[in-house]
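Hi, does anyone understand the following?
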Amino acid sequence: MTNYSADRRIKDRFSASCLRVQLRERAFFGRGKQPVAVTCLDLNRYGMAVLCPRPVDSGARLFLDIEGKYISESRIDARVVSCQPFQTGFRVSLQFSYCLDKKGYSRAIDNALSRIEGFYNRFAS
């Protein structure tokens, strides 16, 4: 479980390095950059941190495909909060877009991410 004293998070994140995540940058007219496989460092229902081999601009909008044992979610919309050098690549902090405003809220996405969070919460215990 990750928890920093100067953290802005409203909820703890849980380690989830066994999740397979693919990151795709959104662009106009559906033409984004090539998808890149990233390593999930931690997550909760509101966001996640990933280790990415290349930098991603803060504020960039992304689609995430998440797969793991009993888990398969595609096209999860997210926004890059920060990107900084970390280990062998870049630590990219993401916030899921469904929770940014009421207009973009999706109960289906909320439920799916809550199930994933619950799985890793139990796994961490």
User: Anything to note?
Assistant: Residues 1-6 have pLDDT under 50 and may be disordered. The beta strands are 14-15, 20-25, 36-44, 47-52, 61-68, 71-86, 89-96. Residues 107-124 form the longest helix (18 residues). The longest strand covers residues 71-86.
